[in-house]
Each structure stands twice: as structure tokens, then as C-alpha cells.
Amino acid sequence: MKNRITQLFDIKYPIIQAGMIWASGWKLASAVSNAGGLGIIGAGSMYPEILLEHIQKCKKATNKPFAVNVPMLYPDLEQIMHIIAEEGVKIVFTSAGNPKTWTPFFREKEITVVHVVSSVKFALKAEAAGVDAVVAEGFEAGGHNGRDETTTLTLIPMVKEQIKIPLIAAGGIATGRAMLAAMVLGADGVQVGSRFVASHEASSHINFKNAVVKAKEGDTQLTLKELAPVRLIKNKFFNDVQELYKTAPTVEELKELLGRARAKKGMFEGDLEEGELEIGQIAGLIHEIKPAAQIVKEMVAEFEEATKEISTFRTLNS
Predict the structure, then answer these.
(1) 16: how many CB neighbours lie within 10 A of its CB?
(2) Would you state the pLDDT for residue 284?
(3) Which of 29, 105, 110, 269 is deepest in the core (most CB within 10 A)?
(4) Structural domain of residue 64, as residue ranges?
(5) Is 43 part of a structural domain of the chain?
(6) pTM as predicted
């Protein structure tokens, strides 16, 4: 599968594992990279010293390319960026911030930069900032999301129409058929999050993984838009938020209910009642916890099978 994304990252398949908080440690990143995709360490839930440890362990676990994802709204940002550069990480994914801030720093060091966006406007800004590629993430995605609520189906062709750099599709992609659909729409590759949460190597708690497997259509919803839109599994905490909304709460009241470390409590510590359980709508199609390498293998096999089916369909209708 040679295309602009596989060549940019020097990987076998255009499958990128998303850098998810409390799920994407060195074990998952190295497993995906060893399977031919691009594994990503999610720095969003790591102190600088923890990130350093994960990068060093990942380098020992794989000789393949891997990346680090950095949401640019967390503290210790400068220290984190310098650790990435000093440790020789070749690819960085940035999100939740202005790509102009750190892209020149990494480009000077010949580090590939990818920025995550949720709209055409931000994709154009990222391209103007000099990034090497963008991830366009649709409304279906888990975790923090765009405010415009644009679905992947409509976002990808709109971004493709406007930019020249490589495009990675994200949001609602967990199968080879979805991968093919995204690439038909104009993507050069796909970023997969929720499917890799339900993997043996993900650092998330087994309770959370089991909750993802049990989730069905309609079990997730976007909420807390006044703070930062986030898609969650409906649980006690989610219901508490909905009850608070009935009182027309202020932003401060929402912040008070959210408190601190809700995501850690839910996804890393396994509190399914009081924790944030961030996952995408595609959870309804995830039925089993599997090794990351098997997930990659199955996606590639289904992609190839679906491609052949389309070729057969064209032949029958020509």
C-alpha cells in the first residue's frame, strides 16, 4: 500500500493509531508500529518524566517509526516538546492549539509534523503553518471533538478539496471497509482510536475496555460543549451532567461538577460510574478485545477484500 502517507511516515500500511489519553502508551504504540502501521504515544495524560520513559521503552520495543501526540493545552508543554526532539522522535502529531507555535521548531530539526483539525478552516491554517499533513477528525470521534459537529463523511471531501498536503481521516473508522470509504472520499490514510482502545496493549483499564465492547448504538453522546466538547459513554457521571443542564448552569458550575481527573478515574482507574468514559460512536461495532497486531491485520484484509468487491461490481456493471 504505497501512497503519500506510507511514504511520509515510512510505514507499510496507511493506518495510524490515535494518540489517546490513558490508552496510548509505549506498548500499544510499538505493537501497532511493529504490525506495519504508525503507533502513537499519547502525551496528553503524561508528565514529562513519564513521557520520557514511554519514548525510551518504545524505542527498545520497535525499530519501526512511531510518533508522539501532544495536545497543546497542557502544562509543561515546552519541556515535553524538547524531550521529543532530544529523544529523536521523528514524527509529532499536535492538536488543540495553534500549529504555528511549534511547527517551525520541529521542522528545523527535520521532524515530521501532523496537526489534528475538525474543519476546513483549521486545515488551511495548519497547511499555512507548514505542517506535513493533517488529520481531519469527524463528529463521530471519541474524546474531545470539534464544535461544528461535521461528520467524517462530509468533512473529508471538503478538506480534500481545499488542501494540497496529505490528508488523514479520523472519526468512526474501525474496519477495513471504513478505511476504504475514507480513502475513496479523498483521504491518504486513516487514524483509528476507539478500535485500539479495545486492544490488549492499550493502557486503559480492563473495566473501560469491557464497557467499550458492551457499548451499542446510541450509548455515546457529545456533551460539555461550553467547556470543551467531549463524546462520552452514558454513565452516572454523564447523567449527572444532563441533570445539571436542566438548571441552565453557568460555566463555573459545569467546571465544579467536572472536577479534576475525571478521565483518569474512568479510563485508567476503571470507575465506570463517576469517571469520564471517552469513546467514539463506532464502539457499537467493536465486540472483542484483541491484540493490536490482529486489529491491523484484519483491517488490511478487509480493506483488500472490499477493494476486490468494488472491482467485481464495476466489471459486472461495465
Answers:
(1) 29
(2) 95
(3) 29
(4) 4-204+288-316
(5) yes
(6) 0.93
Whether 164 and 135 share a structural domain: yes
Backbone angles phi and psi of 149, in degrees to 5: 55, 40
* H or E stretch at 314: helix 292-316
Residues 127-149 have pLDDT tens digits of: 999 999 999 999 999 888 777 88
Look up residue 64 and give its three cell numbers: 519501526
In a shared domain, residues 164 and 74: yes
User: How sure is the predictor about 312, in pLDDT bands with cuts at 50, 70 and 90?
Assistant: confident
| Claim to verify: residue 41 and residue 169 sit in the same structural domain | yes
Structural domain contains residue 299: yes
Task: Give the whole-angstrom CA distance, residue 13 versus residue 3.
Answer: 9
* H or E element at residue 230: strand 230-233
Are residues 236 and 163 both part of a single domain? no
At 220-229, the pLDDT tens digits run 999 998 888 8
**Would you call 74 exposed, middle or buried from its count of C-beta atoms within 10 A (0-12, 13-18, 19+)?**
middle
Cα distances (angstroms) measured from residue 281 to each of 151, 160, 221? 11, 23, 8
> Domain check: are 190 and 255 in the same one?
no
